[in-house]
């Protein structure tokens, strides 16, 4: 391309009826370079916080397997990636000076000849999303840990997962994954993350609660050292400590490590053990057996079972059955569909534990219900049913 002269530039401005006084004196004359092609480069729009991450030398990672929608993760957040089309063509010009940079320079009437290295009609837009963590539990549940004596563990052909494996498979940031591993009470066995098989977990918990009973310790002060000494002959010491960490809060008093046991979590686990072998359980009978099954001095309450079990008040007598929130779909619409298949009409109190985890940042349960459910009154009580027919 022939280089433009100042006179040609001024003539072009005059033809376009533009006043040179309103423009910066410096002019960029653009030409396409030999390699300039569409699709060679991708643009990613970042919010200031993520930009700062990159500028500080940290990396952003795109995660997802072939059949999954890609997400982008920083150290502690997850973002959906969506392509946004633009009506203006975006040009990539190496060394291009912005108006601010030109203003800072002493005024000159020079012409800058720039080559366009590439162009694009779209860019990736990021939207903060919930980390997709359902798969984490699903992977670890393929091969739950049944203890050191389990024959199954020696012969199992199931995959086992290190932290590195999980980072490659789960669409969430490292911090979100590590936090979720704590939430689901996973533990490391020989370098692999495992979830305890439920019966084995209950066996360990039972050892601990029986020891607490026999020693008459308050649940708020269970000494680690004595637990390991007394129970170390029955089960590996790291498993005893893991169950204390799962069901208690660790603290140090006078140089000794103690655990304050979470009563609600113990009650919840015992309820699950009682309910998992019954399709439905007569509510009053269940409450009686449940209270008898928990350690001395612990009180059971139905509100300990939020997101684990559901009471059916419409049956006579009333019944209770296992319904675990972690077994429900992760997608919002699918979650509501499955809940409305289980029960046609829900009160807000009953449905909240089963949709709470779907709330995005600053979103309320009420907003989710407005979007996915229809509200009506039944015997003076507000109930919610599906907006669409459920097959």
TrEMBL record:
One of its GO terms (cellular component) is chromatin. GO terms for biological process: DNA replication; maintenance of mitotic sister chromatid cohesion. Keywords: DNA replication. Belongs to the DCC1 family. This is Sister chromatid cohesion protein DCC1. It comes from Climacteris rufus (rufous treecreeper).
């Amino acid at each position: 391309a022939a280089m433009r002269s100042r006179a040609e530039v001024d003539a072009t401005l005059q033809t376009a009826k533009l006043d040179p006084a309103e423009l910066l004196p410096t002019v960029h004359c653009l030409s396409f370079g030999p390699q300039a092609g569409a699709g060679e480069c991708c643009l990613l729009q970042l919010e200031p916080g993520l930009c700062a991450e990159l500028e500080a030398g940290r990396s952003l990672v795109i995660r997802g397997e072939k059949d999954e929608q890609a997400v982008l993760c920083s150290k502690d957040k997850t973002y959906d990636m969506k392509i946004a089309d633009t009506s203006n063509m975006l040009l990539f010009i190496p060394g291009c000076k912005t108006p601010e940079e030109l203003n800072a320079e002493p005024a000159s009437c020079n012409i800058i000849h720039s080559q366009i290295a590439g162009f694009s009609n779209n860019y990736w837009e990021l939207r903060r999303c919930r980390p997709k963590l359902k798969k984490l539990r699903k992977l670890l549940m393929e091969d739950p840990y049944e203890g050191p004596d389990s024959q199954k563990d020696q012969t199992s052909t199931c995959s086992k997962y290190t932290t590195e494996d999980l980072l490659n498979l789960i669409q969430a940031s490292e911090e979100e994954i590590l936090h979720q591993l704590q939430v689901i009470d996973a533990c490391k066995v020989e370098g692999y993350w495992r979830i305890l098989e439920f019966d084995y977990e209950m066996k360990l918990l039972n050892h601990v609660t029986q020891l607490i009973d026999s020693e008459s310790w308050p649940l708020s002060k269970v000494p680690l050292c004595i637990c390991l000494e007394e129970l170390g002959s029955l089960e590996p010491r790291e498993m005893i400590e893991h169950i204390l960490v799962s069901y208690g809060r660790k603290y140090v008093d006078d140089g000794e490590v103690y655990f304050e046991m979470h009563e609600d979590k113990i009650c919840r686990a015992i309820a699950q053990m009682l309910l998992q072998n019954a399709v439905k359980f007569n509510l009053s009978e269940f409450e009686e057996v449940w209270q008898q099954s928990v350690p001395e001095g612990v009180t059971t309450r139905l509100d300990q079972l939020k997101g684990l079990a559901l009471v059916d008040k419409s049956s006579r007598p009333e019944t209770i059955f296992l319904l675990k929130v972690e077994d429900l779909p992760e997608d919002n619409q699918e979650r509501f569909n499955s809940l409305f298949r289980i029960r046609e009409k829900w009160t807000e109190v009953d449905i909240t534990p089963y949709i709470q985890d779907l709330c995005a940042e600053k979103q309320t349960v009420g907003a989710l219900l407005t979007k996915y459910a229809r509200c009506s009154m039944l015997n003076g009580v507000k109930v919610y049913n599906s907006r669409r027919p459920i097959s």
